[in-house]
Amino acid sequence: MVRAxxxxxxxxxxxxxRVAAAAVGGYxxxxxxxxxxxxxxxxxxxxxxxxxxxxxxxxYAGAVLWAFAARSPRNAWLGLxxxxxxxxxxxxxxxxxx
Amino acid sequence: xxxxxxxxxxWVHTWAGILAGTVLYFMFLTGTAGYFDTEIGYWxxxxxxxxxxxxxxxxxxxxxxxRLEAQAPNAERWILYPPSxxxxxxxxxxxxxxxxxxxxxxxRSEVLDRVTGxxxxxxxxGGGETLYQMHYLLRYLPSRTAYWIVGxxxxxxxxxxxxxxxxxxxxxxxxxxxxxxxxxxxxxxAHNVLSVLALPFHLMITYSGLVFFCFTYMPLIVSAAYxxxxxxxxxxxxxxxRRPGSAERAGVAAPLAxxxxxxxEAERRWGSGQIRSIDVRHPGDxxxxxxxxxxxxxxxxxxxxxxxxxxxxxxxxxxxAPPSGPMLVNDTLLSLHEGLFAGPVxxxxxxxxxxxxxxxxxxxxVLWTAKRRKQRGxxxxxxxxxxxxxxxxxxxxxxxAAYFWANRLLPTDLAARAAWEVHVLFIVWAALLAWAALRPxxxxxxxxxxxxxxxxxLLPVLNALTTDRHLGASLPAxxxxxxxxxxxxxxxxxxxxxxxxxxxxxxxxxxxxxxAQSDGEARGTPSAEPA
Amino acid sequence: MSAxxxxxxxxxxxxxxxxxxRHHRQLLGRPPARRTATSLRATGFxxxxxxxxxxxxxxxxxVGVILWLGLLTAAGLALVFLLPYAPRLAxxxxxxxxxxxxxxxxxxx
Lengths: 98, 531, 109
Known about the structure:
The complex is a heterotrimer of chains A (98), B (531) and C (109).
Chain A: H1 9-40, H2 45-69, H3 73-94
Chain B: H1 2-34, H2 37-44, H3 57-71, E1 75-81, E2 91-97, E3 107-112, H4 127-137, H5 143-167, H6 184-196, H7 199-212, H8 214-217, H9 219-226, H10 230-240, H11 259-270, E4 275-281, E5 289-294, E6 305-309, H12 325-338, H13 344-376, H14 380-409, H15 417-438, H16 441-457, H17 459-466, H18 471-477, H19 480-505, H20 513-519
Antiparallel strand pairs in B: 1-2, 1-4, 2-3, 4-5, 5-6
Chain C: H1 2-18, H2 21-28, H3 34-58, H4 62-82, H5 87-108
Helix pairs in contact in C: 1-3, 1-4, 1-5, 3-4
């Protein structure tokens, strides 16, 4: 991500897109991944939910970093939405919501 | 490629830092004070005599129970805190009444004399405990709003820490680097050193801070597994914390079983002096429950609880199960954050690390504006942040000192006295923000730092003028909890004063490397530094 | 024992610090020879390890490690802020500190 001295509207849009990807996309990614983990971790349900919740903040932080490290805002979104969708489907397949 | 990555991480670091910086500074300052919350509270209640000799827990419990039975016989909840070290220095009781005819509920807490059981008379004050609670409850906001603001800022802090480490190009080579007197470079060095040298603490305090309210911040994970709604949520809490499900009030009267017997059983299992609190739900009802919580002696004894049936006195087995792996991680993180297990040496180290964190945020805020001014010159947004910085980085310490001044100066019979002490803190902070907006920037820094220094350094003098619990009495008596406060204030005053003085001396010298040469501060670095 | 651990941590950090060219110059006006740098760094890490041992003798298990990390912070901050203003004092404390603490511990019991 290159910062120009005077940012154009396009630059600002790109940044806004990444911020949205980080904040909203990241939160979604962290939650869906954690919900998936809560399903597959080999421990009793309450402990799995706890473990997944504890991990969720690290997942969120990682997603935020990805959103800004990705080569383009498009990649930022895709890199979060695709795993989210895949894990979401897997969760539904493995047993879905209680 | 590596460079673009670092650059983008640097961008995230600076923006996460500046957005959350003011709130984080407030959180760090009040949270760090929290490591000595009861000691501060002790200083703020000079009427309370120096801590009496130890009494057997059974005696403290009996006195507390007697007070509760007299003051709140028809209560929904009682909590007793027997004296246990610096964490709970005095016998304390708390009660919450049942709703009255209009549905109103009253809560009261009292500190009792551990020998007579009578309430200890002291000026109404929030003490150090209120200062500490503000670091996650803020003030003048509904608690849920505060949790969300605090949570958002803590999340930004976590991002700032990780991006900071990624961005720091020479984290090992610059491990010990601090070059004073070189303007922006010095601020960056200081920021780096304060961050890296306490990095384990900063990472732990931030992540564990999120864990405290993790089910508020990430409720969907629980809902997905247990179903939506409050009942399902409580079912999850009962399961994960191994709580024998909380029973509703039966509405049938039944006498409470012997608290003394339960206390004896708890002490038999945990050892003496290990009870932190005794929580009685629905006393006098058929569904009464009594939960004992263990004092924080090690980082992992955080979750130890014993729950008794309140009528039969029988220990409910569920509360005896050993913690699972995730539960152990959870309890340990929370324990590390609070540091209740820490003895005196470790407590001072916690305090030092917290101060480093506070200074880390402060130097970061200053660095942000210094860099921006250099790169882009003056503009209104920058001016606003510069003024906010002065009013916070220098103004907030002054405001906290003013809180202590208010404690000594406000009349003891003032209505809502405890609330007014806190109002003074925020009034002074607001006034200093306004002052920063009106004065030339550099003068504002010097003036506010000097004020903060004076308010701190003169506090022990004010103490001597308004009470007899001053250094002249506390030092010979070896009352280190009390003397420590006054001495620490002298220390803070001296430090803030030194910074103000150095800033004032360099008012006429230009910023940058040229100043370093003429300053004579660079005598430790005889040869030119490689860039 | 905590005092001894603190002085050992400080000494360890000082040794590691002096192994670096910039700080060696700060104190002695010239960069260190390759072998000097290596031995200083090794000595430093050994001292930091001894500090950890002292902490584990004071408190067992996790609390000992927590104490060590806290002392490292204190020692590091002390060294970093002393070095630019009084480099010889900073270095002298690294030698004098452990000696004084050891003597004090021996005298106490």
